[in-house]
Amino acid sequence: MLPNVIVLISDCLRKDHAYDKTIMPFLNSLNGTFFENAYAIAPNTHFAVSSMLTGKLPLSISLTWKIDKQKKQFMITNFLPDHHKMFITGNVITSSYYGFNHNFDFFEDFLKESNKEKLNEKIENIETFWTNIKKNKFISKFRFIYNIGKQIKKTMISLTKFVLPNQNININLKERCNKIFASFFDNLPDNKSVFSVLHLMEPHAPYCSINIDKHLIKKVRKVTKRMYAHKNLTQKEIKFLKERYTEETIDLDKALNGFTKKLKEHLDWDNTLLIIVSDHGEAFNETGYLTHPSQKISNPQHIKVPFIISGGFAKNLNLELADNKLIWNKDIYDIVLSIAKGNHQVKLKTQEFITGIDKHNEEHFMCSYFFPEKKVLFEGKENIFGLNNEYTKKIKKKIENENFNCNK
Ligand SMILES: [Zn+2]
């Protein structure tokens, strides 16, 4: 039987928190490889997770973070024909609306549930409206009117999606990891190897432990609102937020303990690889900004990520890293596909690209990618885009227009 591969993506989990034994004692008790120099391939969920699932650098296949037609052909799911492929996500960004469900056998994004009233009802109304139109004999006779109607329907549905109640910024709508874990165990197949991605919202803002004192929730809401509105927060408020973030990380560690125990009951642990990683880190004003904006990347804790390869199967793996031992979170792609092909010797090819970090200040490497006026090496060539290059301008414009920022 092929090994099971479970990838846990913990949204916004900072490396310093993850590797702190006082905050995450269980995580740090796991056997396996803990990479010390792992970086996010992008400073936000959008580009990071789509790169992790396609193995490609952000913007290298298409100019969007969504899993569009071009990206679909590289989706990891295409290359795992013999695994039962599952993706369960608590993050709107990696929902089916943005194509992240491509080729998964089981996909759950909980949108149906949390948006039942606002979203599904609207889509249903449009569908009913359209069915009635189709019944009209006059319209069915004229193909072009029918096609125009179809276009209107498409536009109406896409406009409806903009009213998605954002579970990423609402405490009540926030999907907790225990629900994701429960869905995973409920939907495990019998006698089939599993490849599963679980995208957890701990400890993404609004930072709030499930066990928080009730009187504190009001304050969490107030400060979070101010944070999202980009108000200047006081040192006290930032400290308050970070404390809530830490509490949520502690929750996550406890949940991971329960998850791993259950995993050992349900799956053959010796034949299971458990990868724990985050899409990016989180900033708490160390360099003058909060959360994880893509416009500012001057804080290493914003882009440093935990990267842990555990599970009983990990002992069979031989990870060959570049000399400087740096790794991207998108390297899960190569690791997973190597294992699926029965190749336990995994060569990671990230050194060339990362050279840019050493040569010019590490804090600018991602900026250079998104904002190429900052010079760094990129895939061995200096600043391949060039500031006045048409392609650079196109990318910048596209990012400005399209980058749906989960901080807003
Ligand atoms: Zn994220």
Would you mind describing this structure in some detail?
By secondary structure, the protein is α/β, with parallel strands linked by helices. The chain has two domains: 4-108 and 166-402, Alkaline Phosphatase, subunit A (3-Layer(aba) Sandwich); 116-163. Helices cover 41% and strands 13% of the residues. The protein is built from 16 helices and 15 strands. The chain has helices spanning 15-18, 25-29, 45-54, 69-72, 111-114, 116-135, 137-141, 143-160, 177-186, 214-228, 235-266, 300-303, 332-340, 351-359, 365-370, 390-402; strands at residues 4-10, 33-35, 38-39, 84-89, 106-108, 194-200, 272-277, 283-284, 290-291, 307-310, 318-320, 327-328, 345-347, 377-378, 381-382. Strands 2-10-7-1-6-4-5 form a seven-stranded mixed sheet, covered by helices on one side. β14 (377-378) and β15 (381-382) form a beta hairpin. α6 (116-135) runs antiparallel to α8 (143-160) and α9 packs parallel to α11 (235-266). The longest helix has 32 residues, at 235-266. It is globular and about 70 Å long. It starts with a strand and ends in a 6-residue tail after the last helix. The model is unreliable at 351-389 and 402-408 (pLDDT under 50). The structure holds zinc ion.
Number of helices: 16
The name of the CATH superfamily of the largest domain reads Alkaline Phosphatase, subunit A
The number of distinct structural domains comes to 2
Derived from helix and strand composition plus strand pairing, the structural class reads: alpha/beta
Radius of gyration: 22 Å
Which architecture of the largest domain would the CATH scheme give at its second level? 3-Layer(aba) Sandwich
- CATH-derived topology of the largest domain: Alkaline Phosphatase, subunit A
Any low-confidence stretches, pLDDT <50, length ≥5? 351-389, 402-408
Major sheet: size, sense and barrel closure?
7 strands, mixed
Strand order of the largest sheet: 2-10-7-1-6-4-5
The beta-strand count equals: 15
CATH class of the largest domain: Alpha Beta
Strand content: 5-15%
Present as ligands are: zinc ion
Q: What's the pLDDT, averaged over the residues?
A: 80
Distance between the termini: 45 Å
Tertiary shape: globular
Subunit arrangement of the protein: single chain
Could you estimate the helical fraction of the residues in percent? 40-55%
